[in-house]
TrEMBL record:
The keyword Metal-binding does not apply. InterPro entries: MetalloPept_cat_dom_sf, MtfA_fam, MtfA_N. GO terms for cellular component: cytosol. Keywords: Membrane, Transmembrane, Transmembrane helix. It holds the Pfam family Peptidase_M90. SUPFAM superfamilies: Metalloproteases ('zincins'), catalytic domain (SSF55486). The keyword Transmembrane helix applies. GO terms for molecular function: aminopeptidase activity; metallopeptidase activity. This is DgsA anti-repressor MtfA. The chain crosses the membrane at residues 19-38.
Length: 278
């Protein structure tokens, strides 16, 4: 090889540093694209193993038509809501009971209900409860030999719902009765106590303040002096919390007007305010 040929080769071969820069840039580009797809910012047309797809246009349409909480959110918060709904659907097993299958509408709206309650906690998905059992109507429990509209069973890691009662809860959104929110509130309280990745997320000091005010209101209900909650709320602290959650989302202005301190504590506890959802 002549010196002239060697000089030409040296001039046309890219420096090692430049070559490595190209490789690093290419790797970073691939990582960014994958992360964008995993977070739902870009629909890549395929699914990354272990991660859900972005919420489909069909599922978004279900939310737009049937879920008022979603419709009042800002565009950025809608995106967050969609991501949580999709992940909830992805990680739960929806099991039909006395119906042929759990439909897309059922999956989306039940998941949206759970996300509505946990929206202030981006990393809380009620992970202990792996199964969502859906009945068409009230169902008979062989355990306590009575009919139920819904229940939460931590031993079976299941949330059980009557679809008819679930729909009725959102159809009349101003009466302070919502089966879905009621049962999800039970699951939330239990999730906070069960040792797992989502353990102990509710602020202990706020919980203590909540219980102090709740005990006072339960006494008012027992004495017939409550103008906000139905009598069932006085059954025990767990039922009081669930009934309070129903009213928190369905009648927030009345709740705040009649019980400003209790309402303010629930805002802190759930890290959201239905009156000012943005």
């Amino acid at each position: 090889m002549t010196q002239t040929h060697l000089a030409i080769i040296l001039q046309t071969t890219p420096p090692a540093n430049d070559f490595m820069d190209v490789i690093v840039l290419a790797i970073l580009s691939v990582v960014v694209i994958i992360l964008a797809g995993m977070t739902g910012r870009v629909n890549m047309g395929f699914q990354v193993p272990g991660f859900p797809r972005p919420l489909s246009s069909e599922r978004k349409e279900i939310l737009r038509k049937h879920f008022p909480f979603y419709k009042q959110l800002t565009p950025n918060r809608r995106k967050r809501f969609e991501q949580k709904v999709q992940y909830f659907i992805h990680v739960k097993e929806f099991i039909p009971r006395q119906i042929p299958k759990v439909t897309e509408e059922m999956k989306v709206l039940i998941s949206a209900c759970a996300v509505q309650l946990t929206f202030g906690y981006p990393k809380v998905f009620l992970s202990h409860f792996k199964r969502i059992l859906v009945y068409p109507d009230n169902y008979y429990s062989t355990i306590n030999q009575t009919y139920h509209k819904g229940e939460v069973n931590p031993r079976l890691r299941a949330i059980v719902l009557s679809w008819k009662a679930f729909v009725a809860g959102y159809f009349n959104s101003k009466d302070g009765r919502n089966l879905g929110l009621h049962e999800m509130a039970h699951a939330l309280r239990l999730e906070n106590l069960i040792t797992n990745a989502e353990f102990n997320f509710l602020d202990e000091e706020v919980l203590q303040h909540w219980q102090f005010l709740a005990d006072q209101e339960m006494a008012n209900i027992a004495n017939g002096n409550s103008t906000m909650f139905r009598d069932y709320a006085a059954t025990n602290p767990d039922e009081f919390f669930s009934v309070a959650v129903e009213n928190f989302f369905e009648r927030p202005k009345k709740f705040k007007s009649l019980m400003p301190n209790l309402y303010a504590i629930l805002v802190l506890l759930l890290k959201q305010d239905p009156i000012n959802p943005v």
